[in-house]
Amino acid sequence: MTGPGFLKNSGITVFAFLAGLLLFSGTCKNLLMQAEADCARVALDEEEYFIYVPRAYNRAKKPQQFPLLVAVHGSGLYKGKELTGGPMCEGYRRLAEYYSVILVCPTLHGDFPIAENGSGKIVERIIRQVTRKYSVHPKRISLYGFSAGAEFVERLAFMEPEMFDAVVCVDGGSDFKRTVPKNRKLPRFLFMIGAEDLPRRVRQSAEMAGIIRKAGGLAGFELIPNLGHEESEQIKRRAFGFGTEDIAQTRWANRGSAHKEEEEAVSPGNLRGKLEFVL
Fold first, then answer.
1. Cα(268)–Cα(201) distance, integer angstroms
2. pLDDT digit string (tens) for 156-168?
3. Distances (CA, A) of 248 to 169, 253, 279
4. Residue 118 to residue 2: CA distance in whole angstroms
5. Contact partners, residue 125, CB within 8 Å, separation at least 6
6. CB neighbours (10 Å) of residue 8?
7. Could you tell me whether strands 219-224 and 188-194 are parallel, antiparallel, or unpaired per DSSP bridges?
């Protein structure tokens, strides 16, 4: 068994093993690249949005409808340039893959937080285009916004409340006058904000949750310890979990008068550690 023939056969075996290993490695690399596909930019006249479609959508063996999450960026600059939906889409696509959610991130400009000024209609148009092209569950369309984007999605949800299932507002809060629509079905709301953010933002986010509940809606408020005006992985996962789950799976804390302080002028110290929404 140690003659030249054995060495020759061993060489062939080793070669075949290495070739198979390289093929397997290449397959794994391709699968990894598929799992980390880039977001696609879509132009809509003078506007644009970025979209990520999870692999589960194309793998579905039978027709099914997928949740849609529209995520809106804040205002300001990113690497010296005006913020667009691109960086937000790239930052959220892995969670969209994990939760099997179609993710859409529009690029908005100027005074976009005031949805009534026209930016709201732009996003509604984007949603209509996406729902025409993809199989989207009409009752599982949710909104997510950070900072100025949080103010925007809140106002958009008040403009067209029946269009959305859930709304997540992170680090929002503003002095804009907002009116909760009456005699209309409101989506579920979740307000999240860092405990180290501006006291004004903390107070206004808590007050807004209280106002929505007082109007008969479902609204949670969560103060994140040791976090300023920023997003964290915890917040991102929380947003996707809240925005994509069925309302029947949501356990709401029934605390009655525990919401009283949110309907008054609330101080961050009184709110620290409070959790009015429970998953």
1. 9
2. 999 999 999 999 9
3. 21, 14, 12
4. 82
5. 44
6. 10
7. parallel
Predicted model pTM: 0.76
pLDDT in tens, 38-78: 899 999 988 899 999 999 998 988 889 999 999 999 887 65
The string of DSSP codes covering the chain is --SHHHHHHHHHHHHHHHHHHHHHHHHHHHHHHHHTPPPEEEEETTEEEEEE--HHHHH-SS---EEEEEEE--SSEETTEE--HHHHHHHHHHHHHHHT-EEEEE---TTTTSGGGTHHHHHHHHHHHHHHHS-EEEEEEEEEEETHHHHHHHHHHHHSGGG-SEEEEES---S----PPSSSPPPEEEEEEETTS-HHHHHHHHHHHHHHHHTT--EEEEEETT--SS--HHHHHHHHHHHHS-GGG-EE---GGGGGGGSS---HHHHTT-B-EE-
